[in-house]
Amino acid sequence: MHEGDYSSIDGFVEDRAVVVTTNGLTHITFDFLCPYPKYKWLSNYSYGWAIFQDFNGIGGFVNQSHDKYIHLDYEQVTQFSGEGLATFSQKGLYGIVKSNGEIIGLPQFSRIDGFSEGVAAVEINSKLGYINTEGIICIPPEWTMAMFFSEGLASVANEDYQWGCIDHKGHVVIPANYSFLGTHKEGRICFKKGRKYGFLNSEGTVVIPALYDEATEFSNGFASVKIKNKWGIINYEGKYLVEPQLDSARSFRNGYSLIRKNGVLSLIDVNGLIQSYPEYVWMSHPYKGVIAVTAK
Description:
single chain; 296 residues; mainly beta; four-stranded antiparallel sheet; 0% helix; 52% strand
């Protein structure tokens, strides 16, 4: 176990973790050293780039070696996507920047979300549609709310705030008949009917009935669900890996979920094996055998 003199830590992402030192934020590697510059603000990595702001107010993106920067004047900014694109705002308008630092056109939209599957949600005249990686509208703005694409589908809401799903051509695949639809993950979509949550498949068929007071998206084959103030964990068929008896249950990541029962933190794997850590008040998901923790 490594004990660091940090006022705050985060879990590892892309082989780096953000730590807060007395002199600012920086990244550490698996040797737990702090060889990089300190910043006023710093994010985890996404596709090789982290968002930063230094103590002089200069911001943008920095690579994993901290020897290459994309300096960017921004008010808000998203992390880079797999397409090598990020979005940012200047004076209330949003634009697109490439990972080589090139800006695609001038900021012109009142909102752009992050890119996924080659498109990003964009706001035009108070309606939401989607633009492609060149900044060209590819799905007309006709929705009141819109989420990012995942596994070929995006959840969108009409003016009555009823949710459905569209495909990359903008065609409605699942009619807007739900009070909420989550992101399409692992062939399942969390839906809300009335006050209860269940799950649809990618065709819009109910595969897990609306039985739950709250529910997360599926990850690593499981979703967390809440019934009467207690959380459980279900598989794709709705069968319980853990019955609703937990104080909390986070989504699975890297094969593990973080759960809390009777105030005690534990890790549970996809086979249901539980290892408890009563000496800690906070833990990250394991990453390549390393877990960030905060002791009591």
